[in-house]
Amino acid sequence: MEVAGDKSSPDSSTITVHVKFSGRTLPISLSPDSTVRDLKSLLQPLTNVIPRGQKLISKGKVLADSSSLKSQQVTDGSKVMLIASQGLHQGDGPITKEVTSSSTNTRRTFNGKQSQIHKTETVLNRNRCDRWKSTGVVALSECQLKEVPDEVWACGSSVRVLDLGNNFIQEVSIKISALKSLNKLFLNANDILDGKISWESLSSLKSLTVLSLNQNQLTAFPSTLGTLTSLCQLHIANNKLTSLPEEIGLLKQLQILNASNNRITSLPSSIGNCQSLIEIDLSSNLLAELPETFGNLHNLKLSTLDLHGTEITNDVLRQVEGWEEFDERRRSKHQKQLDFRVGSGVFDEGADDGRGL
């Protein structure tokens, strides 16, 4: 099988680039109009080094990800050196030796259609699964994924952390219920739409403490959100949300809520029941007022209540129960900072007793 590059390119011709890595040479065939990022993606399953951990050098120059091979003067027969950043790999680390098998002849030969690439990938995937099961961490960010690989679900209750950020994933299927021990789920910067998350399956993950869905295409959350009662952190910034469900008040353990850069016009009164909250970022929304129950959030620190870019003014805040206590703490901290600066000539933003404001 030939390792192909960008098939959508109008130029159907291909070039072969000889990539040197750990004492061996990998011939990769792809279109000259392919980008350096495309080349890195083809190298990932062959080296176990994820794209952001790869540095490609040709003629003494580091190749830029967004540039085409042609623009970087990488032509047919060009030699490129791959340097792997330590720690930025998957599976059992960077592959530095050829995988061979006397019984099935799965030796890597990367030469056109005689390559045994499918069998090689099977070996890599098995190693990757073993690694995931032993560590409990599945790190698949920036892998250009359009869907979650089946081997992730196969790891079942071994998985504690799942990072799928910065991909092109559109759906979180019912299969996620297999990850019963999942603590942290990162789905930042994907293409997830309303109705494409199996919330019923997600709600079965009773150990989930961190859910991050920043930078997707979500406009609303279902009432099922309230069943994730172990959540301590909810990150939903940079979506298209217009509101939060009333059931958010059931999240008694929630400490951090980041819902900035959305289109939220009001907060449910039940937000006052989230009394474990210490940090809220609601900046760049369409809020004009806060519910009266907001004053029930006694653990909230003013330094971590961000309302920048909303229509809420100090006059609005003064109407919230508990504002006077907050304001007194703010003034006290400011005075300590001034006294410290006068006494030492150094402005120390931490000139406080550590409680934060």
Describe this structure in words.
This protein has about 350 residues and is an alpha/beta fold. Helix content is about 20%, strand content about 15%. The protein is built from six helices and 13 strands. It has helices at about 35-45, 115-135, 150-155, 200, 315-320, 325-345; strands at about 15-20, 25-30, 55-60, 60, 80-85, 135-140, 160-165, 185, 210, 235, 255-260, 280, 305. Strands 6-7-8-9-10-11-12-13 form an eight-stranded parallel beta sheet. Strands 2-1-5-3-4 form a five-stranded mixed beta sheet, covered by helices on one side. The longest helix is centred in the last third of the chain and has 22 residues, at about 325-345. The radius of gyration is 26 Å and the shape is elongated. The protein starts with 14 loop residues before the first strand and ends in a 13-residue tail after the last helix. Residues about 1-10, about 95-125 and about 345-355 have low confidence and may be disordered.
Question: What brief labels describe this structure?
Answer:
eight-stranded parallel beta sheet; five-stranded mixed beta sheet; 13 strands; 19% helix; elongated; disordered N terminus; disordered C terminus
How would you summarize the topology of this molecule?
Layout lengths: L14 E7 L2 E7 L5 H12 L6 E5 L2 E2 L16 E6 L32 H19 L1 E3 L10 H5 L6 E3 L20 E3 L12 H4 L7 E3 L20 E3 L20 E3 L20 E3 L23 E2 L7 H5 L4 H22 L13
Parallel strand pairs: 1-5, 6-7, 7-8, 8-9, 9-10, 10-11, 11-12, 12-13
Antiparallel strand pairs: 1-2, 3-4, 3-5
